[in-house]
UniProtKB/TrEMBL annotation:
Protein name: Histidinol dehydrogenase
Assigned GO CC terms: cytosol
Record-linked Pfam families: Histidinol_dh (PF00815)
Residue positions binding NAD(+): Y130, Q192, N215
Active site: E330 (proton acceptor), H331 (proton acceptor)
Cofactor: Zn(2+)
Lineage: Bacteria, Bacillati, Bacillota, Clostridia, Eubacteriales
Superkingdom, taxonomy of origin: Bacteria
Record's keyword terms, sorted: Metal-binding, NAD, Oxidoreductase, Zinc
InterPro entries, per the entry: Ald_DH/histidinol_DH, Histidinol_DH_monofunct, Hstdl_DH
Gene Ontology molecular-function annotations: histidinol dehydrogenase activity; metal ion binding; NAD binding
Organism field: Formimonas warabiya
GO biological process: L-histidine biosynthetic process
Length: 431
């Protein structure tokens, strides 16, 4: 049974369930994450390898856990030329977008005569990119993380990703390493990957930041280890809203509504509209499309439409917009008569795609903007991954003698009211 909700008639509990999506309680995973992390902290590689065998069913050695340069080259060569070309094209657009996003290396403003203030932007010291591999293979995620890190000129970029069933890394991912220019890759995923880079092991380096989407195990590990490593944005199970009115093409609505629904049973894909007529026209297209999917993806979409996803019926386009702002989706498409008119009213969304020809697929892979986005309502305060994740700003200030004299008394007064004697003396007794 597909969820079709009339939003204003829905009980409070059901509304909360929809808004909460799969942000379920991960406390059970937190206990495991703590246990695994503690062991990795003390036992290093040996524990990482043991957990990889247990959770990924792959037996590696310290030597084979690190990807060799020839593995990257061979993976690149094995990949068919068309796919290599597509990935290189995506990398080009992403580089273009992220280069345009880069802030100035330095800026200053004269806040008063003789008083200069500004900021200096510097790449972060190092970063670990987490590329998931469980319910799918994600070379595009490596592009989305690696390209802004490169544009920002991070001096050390490390990649961790779960080994596939054969204990190796997919050729498409290896090819992306070559395209981006990344050569430090480790076959490790889940909790053990986050813990390994948080503490460092004999083989895997300690990193100061780990960034990338992951399942609830990876998320639990990030929470447990937040005192040891900067864990970046919260990017959990994929979610989307298609906001449509009666003018939308039902076939295109069906196609796009299903995109993020196929990620997994924990994803959430909603069609939000005031037009019951549109929904009636969309559903047959969904059924037709479902028949074209693999069993795994069909199951994910069906589960999705019965749990966190489905249709939200509202009273008007304005009410649909209100719902979007309340829900704060990761991805969204505006398929209304005037998408550019709706745009200014969307306040909370990780990504806003306009019109009938901008399916989420485009932005997930190659349009340019970053597809690693905040989930679980975090789009109310977080932004997409960007070059800003890979740089930090230092405040810079300068006062001339004349500028200092202008503000000396004010600074003294504030130091006194705060009760900081040395702060006060440093301005009072300065000749
Ligand atoms: N928000 C975003 O921008 C974005 C982008 C891409 C993907 N995603 C989401 O990221 C998630 C990726 O998850 P995934 O599962 O495909 O890959 P993943 O790499 O996060 O998870 C695989 C790892 O989970 C661990 N694991 C699996 N079962 C375990 C168990 N029982 N106990 C302990 N550890 C276990 C294994 O170690 C394995 O290496 C999906 O939910 C997808 O929707 C989000
Ligand atoms: N939709 C994902 C982010 O939520 C990104 C992605 C990569 N591959 C397929 N989809
Ligand atoms: Zn996707």
């Amino acid at each position: 049974m597909m969820n079709i909700y009339k939003w204003k008639e829905l009980s409070k509990e059901k509304q909360e369930f929809v808004l909460k999506r799969a942000e379920f309680d991960i406390s059970a995973h937190m206990k495991l994450a703590q246990e695994v992390s503690d062991r990795i902290k003390t036992e290093g590689d040996a524990a990482v390898l043991a957990y990889t065998e247990k959770f990924d069913q792959v037996k590696l050695t310290a030597g084979s856990m690190k990807v060799k340069p020839e593995e990257i080259e061979e993976g690149y060569q094995r990949l068919d030329a068309e796919t290599r070309e597509a990935l290189a094209y995506a990398a080009k657009n992403l580089t273009h977008f992220h280069a345009a996003q880069m802030p100035e290396e330095m800026w200053f403003t004269n806040v008063d005569k003789g008083l200069m203030a500004g900021e200096k932007t510097t790449p972060i010291v190092d970063v670990c990119l987490y590329v998931p591999r469980g319910k799918g293979s994600f070379p595009s995620v490596l592009l989305m993380l690696g390209i802004p890190a490169k544009v920002a000129k991070v001096p050390r970029i490390v990649v961790v990703t779960p080994p596939n069933e054969e204990g190796s890394i997919d050729d498409s991912l290896l090819a992306c390493c070559k395209i981006i220019g990344i050569d430090e890759v480790y076959k490790v995923g889940g909790i053990q990957a986050i813990a390994a880079v948080a503490f460092g092991t004999e083989t895997i380096p300690k990193c100061h930041k780990v960034i990338g989407p992951g399942n609830s195990y990876a998320t639990a590990a990030k929470r447990v280890l937040s005192n040891y490593i900067d864990a970046g944005l919260p990017a959990g199970p994929s979610e989307s809203i298609i906001l449509a009115d009666e003018f939308a093409d039902p076939e295109k609505v069906a196609l796009d509504w299903m995109i993020e629904a196929e990620h997994g049973p924990d994803s959430a894909a909603l069609l939000v509209t005031h037009s019951e007529e549109l929904v009636k026209k969309v559903l047959p297209f969904v059924h037709r499309q479902l028949a074209k999917l693999s069993e795994k993806r069909r199951d994910f979409v069906n589960t999705n439409y019965n749990t966190y996803g489905g249709v939200i019926l509202t009273d008007s386009v304005q009410k649909s917009i209100d719902f979007v702002n309340l829900y704060a989706p990761e991805h969204m498409e505006v398929m209304t008569q005037d998408p550019f008119g709706v745009l200014p009213q969307i306040k909370n969304a990780g990504e806003i795609l306009l019109g009938e020809y901008t399916p989420i697929t485009l932005c997930n892979f190659l349009l340019g903007p970053n597809a690693i986005l905040p989930t679980g309502q975090f789009a109310k305060t977080y932004s997409s991954v960007s070059v800003m994740d890979f740089v930090k700003r230092s405040s810079v200030g300068y006062a001339s003698k004349e500028g200092f004299e202008r503000v000396r008394d004010y600074a003294y007064k504030i130091a006194v009211v705060e009760g900081f004697d040395t702060h006060a003396l440093a301005v009072k007794e300065r000749s």
